[in-house]
Design a protein that fits this description.
The chain has 198 residues and is mainly α. The protein is 80% helix and 0% strand.
């Protein structure tokens, strides 16, 4: 395959993913239909199915793509932070902002799907494990000691606190410039530090 054909193929695949993400995030799982997504992406259904043969294949790719974006953002925090407290506040702010943005509408879909579908249960477990690994590495960098299982448990608890704060922020009329939103991020970061240091 020529470089030009690969570029066109990658562009088509990217267009499908962007369209599918928009449908999933703004209209929900019930409106996530391959035929409609193909039409919105200005392509034939068969062409879309070349890249994503089934609805679940496309759902998984959208979720994975969204997670990769979050993962890249999380990886950069460790180098920016001056210490554990700063890292946890930055992590809280980043994830609450991500989860209250348009992309944040995708995570509840994964939570729903993983209850009923083994494929998405594995995807969810993989996503969270990578998330935990980043937090464990940051805790170790900033001097938090403990056995691997103890650090993993702390990462899980920190994630649960941030996820809960994100749900609260998502449900409320907060903008990321409001005092209450900033306070939520700061206090979530403080709780995360308390967990890490316990």
């Amino acid at each position: 395959m020529s470089a030009t054909a690969m570029t066109r193929g990658e562009a088509s695949r990217s267009r499908v993913l962007d369209t599918a993400r928009d449908v999933l995030a703004t209209e929900g799982l019930d409106r996530f239909a391959l035929r409609d997504i193909a039409k919105r992406a200005d392509m034939r259904l068969g062409n879309l199915q070349y890249y994503f043969p089934t609805r679940d294949d496309l759902l998984e790719a959208v979720i994975q793509n969204e997670f990769e974006h979050n993962l890249r953002s999380m990886r950069g925090l460790e180098q920016q932070a001056s210490g554990l407290k700063d890292y946890m506040e930055r992590l809280s702010q980043l994830l609450i902002a991500e989860y209250t943005s348009l992309g944040g509408n995708i995570w509840p879909v994964l939570n729903l799907l993983h209850l009923h579908n083994r494929r998405f249960r594995r995807l969810s477990a993989d996503i969270y494990q990578q998330h935990f690994d980043i937090i464990v590495a940051a805790m170790q960098k900033f001097g938090v000691s403990g056995t691997p299982s103890a650090l993993l448990e702390k990462a899980r608890l920190i994630t649960a606190v941030i996820d809960g704060a994100s749900l609260q922020a998502h449900a409320g009329p907060h903008s990321n410039a409001s005092r209450s939103w900033k306070s939520l991020c700061r206090r979530t970061g403080e709780m995360a530090v308390s967990i890490a240091e316990s």
